[in-house]
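To: structure desk
From: M.T.
Subject: fold request, one chain
Message: Could you run this one when you get a chance? Sequence is below, nothing fancy, just the single chain.
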Amino acid sequence: MIKVGDTGFLRALETSDLDWLYSIENNAEWWHLGISKEPWSKDVLSKYIHSQPGNLMRDGQLRLILEVEGSPLGALDIYDYDPIARKGGLGIVMNQEAQGKGLAKMAMGSFVQYLLQTIGLNMVYAVTPITNEASIALFESLHFKNSGTLRHWVLQKGQFQDAYLFQLVQA
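Reply: Done. Structure tokens follow.
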């Protein structure tokens, strides 16, 4: 487990996360942020959980759960992991009731520190729609640099949106 301040920790998925994961993956309001655009069954998600704890080298991705006081409040992902170039993309989703409390910043800060120091990555990046003010503020607060605009990157409600590419390079 990875400690997140004095508040909670990041951990691998557990069987008990099935209902929570089901609600996250099937929230159509968030589908524009990921690759999947269709509902997931509990059976498929259960198999995914059972294939955990996952292996970043084997799978090229890893999802950790932010647990606070015994409840899952968010998920953090590294995807597109490249062990040769030592880089990967980051994603985060937080329960609505956990938003706006600084938990995302603490959790992402701990996750990034783990990836840079323990895993040995040189660079992490995140792509966020230009309208997602909370994500922009999150990555800027963690000293990610806006490296450019990706034109028409996200399709939401039938409209293409630009997205920002944020990078944090190991100093």
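Reply (cont.): The domain at 2-124 is CATH 3.40.630.30 (Aminopeptidase). Let me know if you need anything else for the meeting.
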